[in-house]
Write a structure and sequence with these properties.
Layout: E1 5-10, H1 14-25, E2 30-36, H2 39-49, E3 53-56, H3 65-74, E4 80-85, H4 90-98, E5 103-106, H5 111-130, H6 135-144, H7 159-170, E6 178-179, H8 180-187, H9 191-203, E7 207-212, E8 220-225
Parallel strand pairs: 1-2, 1-3, 3-4, 4-5
Antiparallel strand pairs: 6-8, 7-8
Length: about 230
């Protein structure tokens, strides 16, 4: 890969689009080549500008960001897509993952949250440019898709489900917490599985746990993001 990563910002809120544009412009090795406020305009601008990466909101006035992603993939367009949205529903996250989105970032977020994911995408692009029958380069492509700094997962845990659990934690209000049962209901896994993922988040420093006492029996374990 030569030259900066070319980015298209898609958001129907002009102020939000401006903030995201300024975030990108602060990063070395990236440039904003355009903005779009609707799904139809985004599709047209992607076709016209040929960006490397699209920062794509889910809630657009005509098409949803998920529909934009599906139309791109249906047309054979493998442009990088980073979902940047307030949508936290598990089904939306699953649809984004199934559509091949590189990352999924929940609004509001800080500059460093975006920077880490953008740099991971750029790393993946560089690895792809070098991946010609070299297993080391091919491994780098797939490793770059993992969130920067993510440790190896314990046996039996999957990274897509872990990302869903982390989205639940990220969507909690300030000082809010969640039980394993509540997390399981939102993600669509068993309570035992949800607890394993939540305990992993605690072990690696992404979450913390507190005990809630009330009545007879064992205290309830409640989890919140760090």
């Amino acid at each position: 890969m030569t030259g900066p990563v070319r980015v298209l910002v898609v958001d129907d809120d002009f102020m939000v689009a401006s903030i995201h544009t300024r975030f990108v412009e602060r990063m070395e090795g990236f440039e904003v080549v355009g903005q779009a406020a609707t799904g139809a305009t985004a599709l047209a601008e992607i076709d016209r500008l040929r960006p490397d990466l699209v920062l794509l909101d889910v809630h657009l006035p005509d098409l949803t960001g998920i529909e934009v992603l599906r139309r791109l993939r249906g047309a054979g367009n493998d442009v990088g897509v980073l979902m940047v949205t307030a949508a936290r529903e598990a089904e939306t996250v699953r649809a984004a993952a199934a559509g091949g989105a590189s990352h999924y970032l929940v609004k509001p977020f800080g500059f460093d949250d975006l920077r880490v994911r953008m740099e991971a995408f750029a790393q993946q692009m560089r690895a792809l440019a070098a991946a010609e029958a070299d297993q080391g380069a091919i491994d780098a492509v797939f490793a770059a898709g993992v969130r920067a700094g993510s440790p190896a997962l314990p046996k039996g845990l999957s990274r897509p489900t872990l990302e869903l659990v982390r989205e639940v934690l990220a969507g909690l209000p300030e000082q809010g917490d969640v039980s394993a049962s509540e997390c399981a209901a939102r993600v669509g896994v068993s309570r035992v599985s949800a607890r394993r993922y939540l305990e992993h988040c605690v072990e690696v420093g992404w979450a913390e746990v507190r005990l809630k006492y009330g009545g007879a029996g064992r205290p309830e374990r409640r989890y919140r993001r760090v």
